[in-house]
Specification:
The structure is a single chain. The chain has 21 helices and 36 strands. It is α+β, with helices and mostly antiparallel strands. Among the domains are: 259 residues, Beta-galactosidase, Chain A, domain 5 (Distorted Sandwich), CATH 2.70.98.10; 151 residues, alpha-1,2-mannosidase (Glutathione S-transferase Yfyf (Class Pi), Chain A, domain 2, Up-down Bundle), CATH 1.20.1050. The strands form nine sheets. The protein has a nine-stranded antiparallel beta sheet. A hairpin with a 3-residue loop joins strand 8 and strand 9. Helix 13 packs antiparallel against helix 14. It starts with a helix and ends in a 5-residue tail after the last strand.
Length: 753
C-alpha cells in the first residue's frame, strides 16, 4: 500500500520551484491533497488510433495488474482488432478481452450489453451513442451513459471476475444481451438461478483444438423472460449451441433501479468459472471497485514521483499502468488453492503458473527489466510459466497469445529468461530448465510457427550470419538479435560454471561484426558467398530489417557497444553516425512492403530525422551517446522524446504501445536511467524528469532519486552522486541500486562538454 509518510515528503518537494519555470501546467499546490497514483491514470491514452496511424493502438482495459481477464467497452464490430477507438460514437457491448494488440487480435471474448427494448439484440440494433463527456475510464472502473437506452453502465474487476452495474430507466423491456460471439459458441439461460452460462471458442490462433473460454453471468434480479439465438435465428428452449450463440434476458425496472451482473470465466471448465466467480465474494459493486483501486494504488505506488507538473504525473502513471498489464495471468486457482492452467500449447490442464499475451521482440528491451527491478515476484511467476511453456511445447515462446504466434523475429526469450536468472529473480527449480530451453532454441525452429526458435539457424551457426539471398526475410535483424541472444545465454553459462559453453557462445555473440559494412558504416545484408547486398539503400524499410531500416538496426548491438564504436572508427566516427540519424531527413523507401506502413508515418511526422521512437529497434539508441563520451546529447534527446512524443491524452503515444514496452521506456527515462543491455548489470543515465522519485523495492530497500533543481530549463546533468560519492561515468549498476541508495542529480541549463 501507499506509504503516507513518504508521500508527505514528496508533497513537500512539490512545493519547491525552479527559476524560469515554463511547464505546460503548474505543479500541484501544497495546500491540496495529493491524488492517489491510480487517480492520475487515464486508460484512454493511446486509443485515438487507426490502421494508418498508431497513437498507441490501445484500448481502455479495466483489469487488475497482470489480471487474467480484461474488460473494455466495444465500439468496433465483432472480430475487429480495433475493439475501441476514441473517435467512435457508439458502443455495442462491454467486452471481456484478452487482446494484446490489434495486429494479434483477440481470443476468449464475449460481451454484455444492457438494453431497453426486446428488439435490440444484434450488435447493430443494440448499439448506443455515447460521449466522452459522460464516460469515466480508470484502471479499476469504467462507466458510460448509453444514450439510446437511457442506461448508465459500470464495471469493476478482479483477476478473473468482474461486477457490472446497470442503472435502468422505467421500462418493462429492460434487459441484458450476452453475446458469446461467432465461430462456435454456447449459451444457456437458467432463470431459476438468475444465471446465464456459456462458452466461446472464437480466437485468432495460438490455441489447441479443444480451446474454450467458459463463462458464468449471475444477476441479482429475477429473470422475467429470455430469448436465445444462433446468429439472427431465434431458437426455442433455454440453450443453444451453434456458430453464434446469443442470450437476451429481460425484466421490468423502475427509473433509477440498479441491476448487478457478476461475471467470471475460465479456460478450464464451467465449474472452474463458477469457482472464479467466488473472487467477488459477497462484496457489493462499491467494495469491488474500492478493492480494485487499492490494488492499483499498491502496484503503482511502488514508484512515487514528485516535483513535476500534473501532466507529467498523469503521463508517468498512465505509462506505469500500461507497464503492469502484460503479460497477463493465464493460470487459475483450483479448489485446493493451487495454481493450475489450461495449456495453450498442448490443450491439457496442468499444475503451475502460466502467463501470456506478450511479444518478446518488443518487451525484452525495458518492460522485463522494469519487472526485474520493481516487481520481481511477478516476474518470478512469469519465468516459472516460461519453464512450463517449454515443458509443454518444446520451445520458449517469442510471441504468445495465448500459445505460439507467428509474429516478429529473433530469439529474444533468451534475453527475458537470462536477465531474470542473472538478477536472481527466477525460481531456483526453473533455472536448469530455462537454460536448457535457451540452448535448445539456438538450433531449432518451430515446425508450424517460424518466428519461434531461430529461423535460419543452419546458416547462422555455420556462416555466422543469416544470408540475404536465401529467401529468409529480415536477415540482418535476425542475425543481430541472435548474436545478442547468444551473449545473454553466455552470461547464464558463466554463472552456472559452464565455461566451455560460455566461451563458445561469447564467440558467437560477435557475429554481428559479419554484417558491418565499412563503406557505409551500417549493418547491411550479406549474401551466402560473402558479398554485401546490392543495390543498398539505408532508407529501405523491411527487407533485411524488421519494421525499420539500416539507420535503426545498425545500433542493435546492445551487448558490445564498445565493439561497435571500434568498427565505426572510434568515438568520433560513432558519434557522427549517431548524430546522422537525427540529422538526415525522414525520407524512406517502402518498396519492400509496397505501401507506407504506419511505423514509417510515425517516424516521418515526429520531426526527429530518421529516428523512429514509435518502434522498438530505435528506442535504446539515444542512450548510446553515453558510451561515446557525449552524455549531454542523451540528456537532450531523452527530454525531447518525453516532452514531445508522450502525453496522457488519447493520442499520447508516437506508435504502438506494444504491451508495456513503449510505456516502460518512459518510466525508466523519467527516473533518469535506462537498461540498454538487459542481462548486464548497468543502466545508462539520461535526464530525470522529476525533482524527486522513490522506488520501493520488494527487498525492503528504497532507491531515492533527487534532482532538486530540475525543471524544463535544466535538462542537463552537471554532477551525479551515489550515496554522496561522485559518479565519473554516466552509468548506474543494478546491484548497487538493490542495496537501497540515494542518487542525486545536479541539473543545469547548459551541458558540460
Amino acid at each position: 500500500m501507499i506509504r503516507p509518510v513518504s508521500f508527505l515528503v514528496l508533497a513537500a518537494v512539490l512545493c519547491g520551484s525552479c527559476g524560469n519555470r515554463t511547464e505546460r501546467s503548474a505543479a500541484i499546490p501544497c495546500d491540496e491533497p495529493l491524488p492517489r497514483p491510480s487517480e492520475y491514470v487515464s486508460t484512454l491514452v493511446g486509443t485515438q488510433s487507426e490502421y494508418l496511424l498508431s497513437a498507441g493502438n490501445t484500448y481502455p482495459a479495466v483489469a487488475l495488474p497482470w489480471g487474467m481477464n480484461f474488460w473494455t467497452p466495444q465500439t468496433g464490430k465483432m472480430g475487429d482488432g480495433w475493439a475501441y477507438t476514441y473517435g467512435a460514437h457508439t458502443i455495442c457491448g462491454l467486452k471481456q478481452t484478452h487482446q494484446p494488440s490489434p495486429w494479434i487480435n483477440d481470443y476468449g471474448q464475449f460481451s454484455l450489453m444492457p438494453v431497453r427494448g426486446k428488439d435490440k439484440v444484434d450488435e447493430e440494433s443494440r448499439q448506443s451513442w455515447f460521449s466522452h463527456q459522460s464516460e469515466e475510464a480508470r484502471p479499476y472502473y469504467y462507466s458510460v451513459y448509453l444514450a439510446d437506452h437511457d442506461i448508465k453502465a459500470e464495471m469493476a474487476p478482479t483477476d478473473r471476475a468482474a461486477v457490472m452495474r446497470f442503472t435502468f430507466p422505467e421500462s418493462d423491456e429492460s434487459g441484458v444481451v450476452i453475446d458469446a460471439f461467432d465461430r462456435g459458441s454456447y449459451v444457456k439461460v437458467m432463470p431459476d438461478k438468475r444465471t446465464v452460462v456459456g462458452y466461446t471458442t472464437r480466437n485468432s490462433g495460438g490455441v489447441p483444438e479443444n480451446f474454450r473460454n467458459y463463462f458464468v453471468v449471475r444477476f441479482d434480479k429475477p429473470i422475467e423472460s429470455f430469448r436465445v439465438f444462433d446468429g439472427a435465428r431465434e431458437v426455442k428452449g433455454e440453450a443453444v449451441t451453434g456458430d453464434h450463440a446469443v442470450a437476451a434476458i429481460y425484466f421490468t425496472t423502475r427509473r433509477g433501479e440498479q441491476v448487478t451482473a457478476r461475471v467470471a470465466s475460465s479456460f478450464i471448465s464451467e465449474e472452474q468459472a463458477v469457482r472464479n466467480l467466488k473472487e467477488l465474494g459477497k462484496d457489493d459493486f462499491g467494495t469491488v471497485k474500492a478493492k480494485a483501486q487499492e490494488r492499483w494504488d499498491e502496484v503503482l505506488g511502488k514508484i512515487e514521483v514528485a516535483g513535476g507538473t500534473t501532466d507529467q504525473h498523469r503521463t508517468f502513471y498512465s505509462c506505469l499502468y500500461r507497464s503492469t498489464l502484460f503479460p497477463r495471468k493465464f493460470y487459475e486457482i483450483d479448489k485446493k488453492g493451487n495454481p493450475v492452467h489450461y495449456s495453450p500449447y498442448n490443450g491439457k490442464v496442468l499444475p503451475g503458473y502460466m502467463y501470456t499475451d506478450t511479444g518478446f521482440w518488443d518487451t525484452f528491451r525495458s518492460l522485463f527489466p522494469l519487472l526485474n527491478l520493481v516487481y520481481p515476484s511477478v516476474n518470478a511467476e512469469i519465468q516459472a510459466g516460461l519453464a512450463n511453456a517449454y515443458r509443454e511445447s518444446g520451445f520458449l515462446p517469442e510471441w504468445a497469445s495465448p500459445g505460439h504466434r507467428g509474429c516478429m523475429v529473433g530469439n529474444n526469450s533468451a534475453s527475458v529468461a537470462a536477465d531474470a536468472i542473472l538478477k536472481g529473480v527466477t525460481p531456483e527449480e526453473d533455472i536448469a530448465t530455462l537454460y536448457e530451453a535457451m540452448l535448445a532454441g539456438r538450433d531449432r525452429v518451430h515446425p508450424t510457427v517460424s518466428s519461434t526458435g531461430r529461423l535460419g539457424h543452419e546458416y547462422y551457426n555455420t556462416l555466422g550470419y543469416v544470408p540475404y539471398d536465401v529467401n529468409i526475410p529480415e536477415n540482418v535483424a535476425r542475425t543481430l538479435e541472435y548474436a545478442y541472444d547468444d551473449w545473454c545465454i553466455a552470461q547464464v553459462a558463466k554463472m552456472l560454471g559452464k565455461d566451455e559453453e560460455a566461451e563458445r557462445l561469447e564467440k558467437a555473440s560477435q557475429n554481428y561484426k559479419n554484417l558491418f559494412d565499412p563503406e557505409t558504416k551500417l549493418m547491411r545484408g550479406r549474401n551466402a558467398d560473402g558479398t554485401f547486398q546490392s543495390p543498398f539503400s539505408p532508407y529501405k524499410w523491411g527487407d533485411a530489417y524488421t519494421e525499420g531500416n539500416a539507420w535503426h538496426y545498425t545500433w542493435s548491438v546492445f551487448h558490445d557497444v564498445e565493439g561497435l564504436i571500434d568498427l565505426m572508427g572510434g568515438r568520433e566516427g560513432f558519434t557522427q553516425m549517431l548524430d546522422s540519424v537525427f540529422v538526415v531527413p525522414p525520407i524512406y523507401d517502402d518498396s519492400y512492403y509496397g505501401f507506407r506502413i504506419h511505423e514509417i508515418t510515425e517516424m516521418q511526422v515526429a520531426n526527429m530525422g530518421n529516428y523512429a521512437h514509435g518502434n522498438q529497434p530505435a528506442q535504446h539508441m539515444i542512450y548510446l551517446y553515453d558510451y561515446c563520451g557525449q552524455p549531454h546529447k542523451a540528456q537532450w534527446w531523452t527530454r525531447e522524446v518525453m516532452d514531445r512524443l508522450y502525453s496522457a491524452k488519447p493520442d499520447g503515444y508516437c506508435g504502438d504501445e506494444d504491451n508495456g514496452q513503449t510505456s516502460a521506456w518512459y518510466v525508466f527515462s523519467a527516473l533518469g536511467f535506462y537498461p540498454v543491455c538487459p542481462g548486464a548489470d548497468e543502466y545508462a543515465v539520461g535526464s530525470p524528469l522529476f525533482r524527486k522519485a522513490v522506488i520501493h523495492l520488494e527487498n525492503g530497500n528504497d532507491i531515492v532519486i533527487e534532482a532538486p533543481e530540475n525543471c524544463p530549463a535544466n535538462r542537463y546533468v552537471g554532477k551525479m552522486t551515489l550515496d554522496g560519492k561522485n559518479l565519473e561515468r554516466p552509468f548506474i549498476n543494478y546491484s548497487e541500486l538493490q542495496k537501497g541508495v540515494k542518487v542525486r542529480f545536479e541539473m543545469q541549463p547548459e551541458p558540460d562538454k
